[in-house]
Amino acid sequence: MKRIGIDVGGTNTDAVLIVDEKVVHSVKRPTTADVTSGILDALRALRAEPAAAVKVDAVVIGTTHFINAVVQRRHVQKIGAIRIGMPASASLPPFCDWPTDLASLVNGEIFMLEGGHDYDGRPFMPLDVAGLKDAARKIKDAGLRSVAVCSSFSPLDPSCETTAREILAEICPDVAVTLSHDLGRIGLLERENAALLNASLHDLAVTTVAAFRKAIADSGIDAPLFLTQNDGTVMQAEIATAFPVMSFASGATNSMRGAAHLSGLDDAMVVDVGGTTSDIGQLRHGFPREANAVVEVGGVRTLFRMPDLLSIGLGGGSHVDEDPVRVGPLSVGYRLTSDALVFGGARLTATDIAVAAGLIDIGDRSRVANLPKRLIEGAMRDAWRKLEEDIDRMKTEAGDVPLLAVGGGAFLVPDRLPGISEIVRVPHGDCANAVGAAIAQVSGEADQVFRDLSREDAIAAARDIAADRAVQAGAARDSLKTVDVEDMPIAYLPGNALRVRVRVAGAIADPDLPAAA
Amino acid sequence: MSKAELKTISLDEIEALAVGAWILGTGGGGSPYLGLLNLRRLYAEGIRVQLMSPLDLDDDDWIAVVSNMGAPLVGQERLADSRNIARAVRMQEEINNIKFRAVMSVEIGGGNGVQALMAAAHLGIPVVDADCMGRAFPEAQMTSVAIGGLRPYPCTLYDPRGIEAVVTKVPTWKWMERASRKICVEMGSIASTSKAPRTGREVKDWGIHFTTTKAIRIGRAVQEANRRHEDPIAALLATEGGKKLFTGKIVDVARRTTEGFLRGTAMVDGSDADRGTKLKLSFQNEWIVAWRDEEAIATSPDLICVLDSVNGHGIGTETIRYGQRVTVVALPAPPVLTSPRGLEFVGPRAFGYDLDFRSLFSPAAAGA
After folding, report:
1. Which of residues 305-324 of A touch B (CB under 8 A)?
2. What whole-number distance in Å separates Cα of residue A62 and Cα of residue A14?
3. Mean of the pLDDT values across residues A463-492?
4. What is the pLDDT of residues B99-120, one digit of tens each?
5. Are A506 and A453 in contact (CB under 8 A)?
6. Cα separation of A311 and B23, whole Å?
7. How far is Cα A28 from Cα A35, in angstroms, rounded to an integer?
8. Which residues in chain B have Cβ-Cβ distances shorter than 8 Å to A397?
9. Which residue in B has a C-alpha nearest to residue A115's C-alpha?
């Protein structure tokens, strides 16, 4: 197995080549505004290493591009929102629980129509086809290019949403359509929010994935492109174009999975110290522990399954104040290599302190030679105290556990912390998220209605179908694990009907080995 | 009408009420979040809701008792709309030719903990600081007013498709449950209902008093502990005299929406002190029995609350899912529910379990 993993972050673009689970080479380059040239630059640097100039099976990209767009309110587009299920839920229209600044950027026009289903599969109201046609014409006239459709109980019966897509395709064929049942489960508001967010990222997804493709083509690499998604598995680039929200948490997931892979530890705390923030999470059986509650993205409530992370304002670029001595939360961010003292700038940063303390040797050491000892020690103590407190908050067990310290700013993590059995630092740890992308797993999903089967038999049948699909997609069968199971009875249909959704994921099979039976 | 002291409920208090009501919902009643969203929008329009003490009611006042009835799962797809519950109350006024002095929730637990406020916002009358359960229960006869033998009829039911129904007369609360449940199921297993109107005397005698302020107090304790990065569950247990039963991770959920209810079981795999053991939770809308190794360690009417181990918020039977880390706690039930007659209505046998009720709490704790 030969794969290139790329992490396109807000500050850096990292690339690694992994051959048979081992990192052959890794590089770090600045992210560029056009995305393409940063990736191209990283790929050229990677391939310049003779050992890394081999033919690869796949290129896997992990990116925080789409979640950052929502959080920073940049590059989101105006959309049409179609809610089907009136006259129920009328007092809580689409966008009703969004932050107003984001809603005003995204809300193009709202259409609330009759239709939808009941819990038992019966139609709630006859679908308002004339209203849908009218909405499609208005969307066309308004020049909206992306639409989200959400119908009541669509995870049980998606027919109102699929009919809406057909009507939209007829009247305004150039409009991109997101259907809520493709993205979420029971919970109309959260499922609708996921669809609205997805629709608002459509143009960005098209241009970003095209930029990814161009960079790979320009670098001369001939291999399929995958993107990583929230649960640490890969999706084909076409799927990512249609569903950018599925990549929301992939940066954090990749970093933790990469840390697990590099260290060989499956159960540990992880701290990823970047330029601006430190993300603290916990690995369980090689996967990030998931957030328990509703996950808010940019202030919007969703039901995405995301790693449970605590982000604190502490990184290599954090400002250091002298009176009182304090590190962060402000940071010089991507200007580190121009603004920090050791790089000739005028701003005292955590990196300068680490150079002065002899923890790392980068930039011009003489420029921090005269920093007072009191300041150096005080700043390190403040950074350590912050890490200690917040790592302890994220721990779920009383005993000592190992801590994996990764990311470009990992030098800020001390060699000993209370409640931590050992601090583990690994080679290539500064590119852990690119490593996580390269080793991302393959998944398979089944979602269908079963009749005349017990719940156990129906779930087992769905699991078999999902496993076959994962193997077809390139997974090793004996590595497959169930990651999600959901079942919903459809009382209205005869024969004890049950809609079952099962998702399995596993490691990539070695193409050189015969597939296990 | 005697003069009563009315207190305007602030939006902060409603936010706390939503947190506290969800915990008191013992898994059922639906998340108060959607009701809270309705109230945020109404408050943004300038509407305010007022709270009054049940002790300030006159004996001959009429009080509306409201409830959003049905399966919590359905409430996730047919979102609470404050106008529906107000319409159900108006129907009572029309058929009985009465005017309500105030409105109260049938149950403080779950989404119904804010239903009375939603109705009050449209009707322009105050909310009584009381309910008929002190928690949430799945069935219409599981109330203090039923235990008190008060008249069970009439009940109005409303569906926004323009369906209005009245159960005019029934001989018992159980019949009210059966007749109104059938209508509710036909409406899609959700209906906005206004139960039999109560007099001020009846609310003073049989209402469970000051439960709105109790829910606000619980919500505040959890919110403030979270703000201070302290353990919200410890704060809740300290405030309400509760007991921690189990800590772990959800490893299986079997759910069925049947006959207007959500039924099933959830399995919790122990962690920390409970490592190596499992807890099974049986539910009918609400958590009814907690089993450890086939032994019932807690049953209704003691409140079994499944909480998010991290933030201490309630987790509902319709939203609980594989992988969630939970802490299961018990809170004492109001004394009217644990009386011999009360247990006939809400004890384990009322849910079909052949078990005697053994409270985890001394009578003094329940009275607190």
Report:
1. 308
2. 10
3. 85
4. 999 999 999 999 999 999 999 9
5. no
6. 28
7. 14
8. 271-272
9. B161
SS3 A128: coil
| Res. A516 pLDDT band, cuts 50 70 90 | very low
The whole-number average pLDDT for the span A508-517 is 56
**Two structure tokens written together for B182:** 């059938």
Name chain A contacts of B188, Cβ cutoff 8 Å.
118-119, 122, 124
Which pLDDT tens digit goes with each residue over B118-173? Answer: 999 999 999 999 999 999 998 889 999 999 999 999 999 999 999 999 999 999 99
Count other Cβ atoms within 10 Å, centred on residue A319.
17
**Nearest 5°: phi and psi at A330?**
-70, 155
Look-up: residue for tokens 């008060």?
B150
- Most B CBs within 10 A among A153, A154, A181, A292, hence the mutation to make, goes to A292
Under an 8 A CB cutoff, do B189 and A118 touch?
A: yes
Asked if residue B86 has pLDDT above 80, the reply is yes
DSSP string, B183-221: HHHHTTSEEEEE-S-EEHHHHHHHSEETHHHHHHHHHHH
What's the gap in Å between the CA of B102 and the closest CA on chain A? 23
Characterize the bridge pairing of strands A310-312 and A278-284.
Answer: antiparallel
**What DSSP string describes B118-171?**
HHHHHHT-PEESEESSSS--SSTT-SHHHHTT-----EEEEETTTEEEEE---S
CB A413 within 8 A of CB A273: yes
Q: What is the dihedral of CA A385, A391, A395, A397, to 10 degrees?
A: -40
Stretch (H or E) spanning B6: strand B6-9
Q: How far apart are CA A25 and CA A29, in angstroms?
A: 14
- Is the CB of B255 inside 8 Å of chain A's CB atoms? yes
Identify the CA nearest to A241 among candidates A255, A229, A254.
Answer: A229
Strand-pair partners of B286: B284
- Helix (H) and strand (E) counts for chain A? 14, 23
Are β-strands B127-128 and B49-52 bridged in parallel, bridged antiparallel, or unpaired?
Answer: parallel
CA distance A187 to chain B (A): 5
- The alpha carbon dihedral of B345, B348, B349, B352 has a sign of positive
- Closest approach of A478 to chain B, Cα-based (Å): 22
Q: What amino acid occupies position A409?
A: G
Query: Which residues in chain B have their CB less than 8 angstroms from residue A121's CB?
Result: none
* Angle at CA of residue A185, ends A184 and A189, nearest 5°: 75
- On whether the CB atoms of residues B107 and A117 are closer than 8 A, the answer is no
Q: Nearest residue of B to residue A95 by CA position? A: B37
Q: Which amino acid is at B220?
A: R
CA distance A61 to A40: 13
The SS3 of residue B62 is strand
Beta bridge partners of B284: B263, B286
> What pLDDT was estimated at residue A517?
37
Bond prior to B332 in cis (omega within 30° of 0):
no
The Cα angle at residue A336 between residues A333 and A340, in degrees rounded to 5: 130
Q: Which residue on chain B is closest to A484 by alpha carbon?
A: B322
Residue A368 and residue B312: Cα distance in Å, rounded?
47
Average pLDDT of chain B? 93
Please name the member of A120, A189, A393 whose beta carbon is closest to the beta carbon of B229.
Answer: A393
Instruction: Look at the block and give the residue holding tokens 């369980």.
Output: A284
B150 touches A at CB < 8 Å: no
Q: d(Cα A48, Cα A42) in Å, to the nearest integer?
A: 10
Half-sphere exposure (CA, 13 Å, Cβ side) for A193?
25
Note the pTM of the prediction, 2 decimals.
0.88
Nearest-Cα distance to chain A for B348, in Å, is 26
